[in-house]
Amino acid sequence: MATTFRTRLRGDTAFLVIDGDLDIAARETLAATLRDLEQYAPETLVVDVTAVPFADCSGLRELDRSRRRVEATGRRFRIRDADPALVRVARLAQYVELAETMTSGAPSRRNIAHVRARVGATSHSSKAESAQRRT
Q1: Helices (H), strands (E): how many in the chain?
Q2: Distance between CA atoms of 30 and 26, rounded to whole angstroms?
Q3: In terms of Cα–Cα distance, which of 9, 91, 21, 20 is closest to 46?
């Protein structure tokens, strides 16, 4: 399955939503998409990686290059809904500043729903309801 990139502008914020792997196969499209968004000179560039199950160094490198270009002009670069594993990979690959731009704290509802869909998990209340139905 090919990685998809969806963009949108809202006010002074540009959004990039990525669905799929950030690897060598997606690198060129990722780089071009980020550069296109940067040309709008938004105050904030937000990259949503909720649906990114895998990233290698080539994908992280393109994200970091964009971060550097955006921050060099005094604007903000944020990565939203990064899986903790992606944050660890970024740190291990020495992209510490990139890792610091990744959302910290509790994951969004969208991220939780996506993860549950990926792993087929159910909520605790659903499990309790199932147990009650069996009795």
Answers
A1: 6, 4
A2: 6
A3: 9
Q: Give the model's pLDDT for residue 128.
A: 37
The pLDDT assigned to 34 comes to 98
Q: Which long-range contacts (CB under 8 A, 24 or more apart) does 99-102 make?
A: 101/67, 101/77, 102/78
What is the per-residue pLDDT for 127? 39
The three-point CA angle 70-5-117 to 5° equals: 115
Beta strands in the chain (DSSP E): 4-10, 13-19, 44-51, 76-80
pLDDT for res 103: 64
Cα–Cα distance measured from residue 19 to residue 104, given in angstroms and rounded to the nearest whole number: 20
Note the pTM of the prediction, 2 decimals. 0.76
Q: What is the pLDDT of residue 121?
A: 38
For residue 26, give Cα distances in angstroms to 46, 98, 112.
18, 18, 25
